[in-house]
Amino acid sequence: xxxxxxxxxxxxxxxxxxxxxxxxxxNASRSLKHEFRLYARQAISMLEKRQxxxxxxxxxxxxxxxxxxx
Length: 70
Prior knowledge:
Layout: H1 3-20, H2 30-69
Helix pairs in contact: 1-2
């Protein structure tokens, strides 16, 4: 498993535990595990998009800050 797959697996397990409480991930059906892995991938994608937005805002604001300092 590569790093992304490991991250997806950890997040999927965390979502599963939050939703199903004490039910064991290992006992979940393949389709249910697949569903939670999709949720995890979507969450990662949303975070990446948010980080890109923040970086764009910071880059856009940087020239203004430089001019204000000068």
